[in-house]
User: What shape does this take?
Amino acid sequence: MATLSRRQFLTSTATIAMATLINTDATRAKAQSSRKLGFALCGLGNLSTHQIAPALAKTKHCRLAGIVTGTPAKAEAWKAQYDIPAGNVYSYNDMHRMADNPDIDVVYVVTPNALHAEQTIKAAQAGKHVFCEKPMEVSVERCQQMIDACRKAGRVLGTAYRCQFDPHHLECIRLVREEVFGKTTIVQAGFAIDVGDPAQWRLKRALAGGGALMDVGIYALQATRYLTGEEPVLVSAIETKTDKIKFAEVDESMVWTTRFPSGVVAYCSTSYRTGGIQNLRVNAERGWFELDPAFFYDGNHGRRSDGQEIRFPEIDLFAAEMDDFAQCILEGRPTKVPGEDGLRDVRIMQAIYESARTGRAVSLG
Amino acid sequence: MATLSRRQFLTSTATIAMATLINTDATRAKAQSSRKLGFALCGLGNLSTHQIAPALAKTKHCRLAGIVTGTPAKAEAWKAQYDIPAGNVYSYNDMHRMADNPDIDVVYVVTPNALHAEQTIKAAQAGKHVFCEKPMEVSVERCQQMIDACRKAGRVLGTAYRCQFDPHHLECIRLVREEVFGKTTIVQAGFAIDVGDPAQWRLKRALAGGGALMDVGIYALQATRYLTGEEPVLVSAIETKTDKIKFAEVDESMVWTTRFPSGVVAYCSTSYRTGGIQNLRVNAERGWFELDPAFFYDGNHGRRSDGQEIRFPEIDLFAAEMDDFAQCILEGRPTKVPGEDGLRDVRIMQAIYESARTGRAVSLG
Assistant: This one.
């Protein structure tokens, strides 16, 4: 060991792991990759009801195996609708019982932001892989606790960044990487929604941790990162709040700018008060391309400065991200949306809030 | 006088002035408004050659009467092409002689930025009105000197903000003012060009005063001001420079954010290294509208969130702004692009540079 560099050590470890998988467990691996992983949905709100549960039915490698809910009426309705055995229904307080349930492989955490760490840690301690909605949590510290808990349990932690599975975004990434229009210079991204109902948890700081930025601005931020393939080194932000009652506890609107190590800069926006901002544009030395709308569940499309369209057949993004997560587990390969990625966004969003609060640009190491 | 408020005084003064104009000078005023004002172009570069001189031929109230140039060969060529009398040809050093030339009413200053003050002041002292290209000058102090000189001479000073005469921009202003999509929330604007020739004066600090921001970013900045009808109270900016040789003296690319008193925020960009950013988008409570391209000499057009197009018949923007300036002079009414407007942009751009340099948001009173 003493003569091995860190890279050599990691490489040799990976080689051994791979060899073990191939030689010793080849048969089991093959059986594994054809079986469907059992998902338990933790939190049965709108997203679970209208997007994730229907999407699970479209996956190749996943199945809806269980639920975690604090609402008995929801438990009954879901059990009936999806034929979920009574033994696979959990409350938030008895998630530890999952340890004895081999029917559940993955817990998909779809609860308010500030509950993600607690539930992720419970699931990991029960031996389950965790797929967690964005934002990962409300602080960097909690994100780290989630990562640590999953690592300690030897389970995989993924963040539900569906856009990284959208062919339109993948095409934009390809256009950047292959420098089809030359080197990237300036990226523009924005995502704003009219948040609606003033009573919802998204407007409560204790549950949401933040407002528009944490909920939808995160898509714009993420996009600037996966498009450039770089991490921002400087962020600067200005916040505005025009409805101080509805948005008493969280941010209403935010505009921010970032600089990346290569010199690329980005300018971005988010809001809970205005619809219609849903776009992403990459400007490069010899042209540009954009998606507008960019962040919908479906219907995203775009155009390029050479007149070509960016438009692919629609897929279910929730099904795509869950299938990929399941395959990563089944095949023992890393996910491209690990918990570490979720943590990075939370760290940058905290820097954006700090900049807006202090009036200073914040450096990110 | 002692019993009059300032407003009453101004109103009564204006009434007297108007009465004088109507009663005493009615005949002359009528003759005036039908005559064409003589324009002298000061600086015969690309803009004068390819845009302004051809545009003058399309105006109703202006005519190309004279030129100011430091290049004898250009003087000869222009004299021949435009039938300019020898007595109406000036060098930068003998502009004071214009005082004796009633054939010249207006000097249109089209020289490098850092020469605007000197030439404007000379023109004003010779009794001429001045129409000045953007940016007005390279410092707030010099802009103020220009304003003072014109005021002292009783002459009108205008800034060549052609977009304020573009029907597409006027339509956007109308959509904001009439709140067709509700109150404005977030404005996005960017203007970037590939500046080309590394030897040009635009890349020399001494002549240009700044780079992309001063030259094209100013259009994006202006647009956020005339669209909202407000002055920014806070600016924050990040600069980037990837070609440190070509852009050794001036800014290459800049992204910035601003907040306005009503709570509207804007996010903007400019660059000398990348083409293709040419847009303007207003997001409001119930929809959005945008121009893309927004800042061309012609061909600008746009769309609205309700599916309607924003497209008007093309006009010559240079002819439109010169005709309006001439009419303002002939009819004794104020221009909507006074020197004070040019100064405001220079002040805000200086704040943007300061923010980029210091890493702090800069408040504007």
Q: What stands out?
A: Residues 1-25 of chain B have pLDDT under 50 and may be disordered. The longest strand of chain B covers residues 184-192. Chain B touches chain A through 45 residues (CB under 8 Å). The first helix of chain B runs from residue 6 to 24.
